[in-house]
Amino acid sequence: MQNHAHSKFEGLIVWQRARKLAADVYRFVKDSSIANDFPFRDQIQRAAISITANIAEGAERDNRNEYAYFLRIAKASAGELRSHLILACDIGLCPTPAALRLQDEISQIGRMLGALIQRQT
Q1: What's the pTM value of the predicted model, to 2 decimals?
Q2: Residue 110 has what pLDDT?
Q3: Which of 4, 32, 35, 65 supports an S-S bond with 94, CB 3.0-4.6 Å?
Q4: How far is CA 59 from CA 2, 46, 66, 115, in A?
Q5: DSSP letters of the chain?
């Protein structure tokens, strides 16, 4: 990972993990049969990107309620991503062990987001 001057979101462990997750999801999709299902691939990638983007957008707001709102969207995107990966395995588009590892990381990120939301409200 590159070093950037930290603003509000780069220092957040949950954002750092979500950033790594998004990169891992892109590699996972590229190396699986999901890559050939363009609409599904796009949905999966958009959900992964949405997690990091919404954490960043919320953190850059100067309002706790707005921050919590964007964290909720990020958490919802994590749920969407997890659901997509479960379905992808159900229909034989991806290797299950790798998908399970991603699903576990998504669940952990979701729990971290939930705790961060609680601290904002």
Answers
A1: 0.91
A2: 98
A3: 32
A4: 20, 20, 9, 15
A5: -------TTTT-HHHHHHHHHHHHHHHHHHTSGGGG-HHHHHHHHHHHHHHHHHHHHHHTSS-HHHHHHHHHHHHHHHHHHHHHHHHHHHTT-S-HHHHHHHHHHHHHHHHHHHHHHHHH-
The CATH code that applies to domain 13-120 is 1.20.1440.60
Q: Report the 10 Å Cβ neighbour count for 4.
A: 7
Q: Which residues of the chain have pLDDT under 50?
A: 1-5
Name the average pLDDT for the chain: 93
Task: Give 43-72 pLDDT, tens digit per residue.
Answer: 999 999 999 999 999 999 989 999 999 999
Cα distance between residue 71 and residue 5, in whole Å = 22
Tokens of 9: 């979101």
Residue 99 CA to residue 97 CA, distance in Å, equals 5
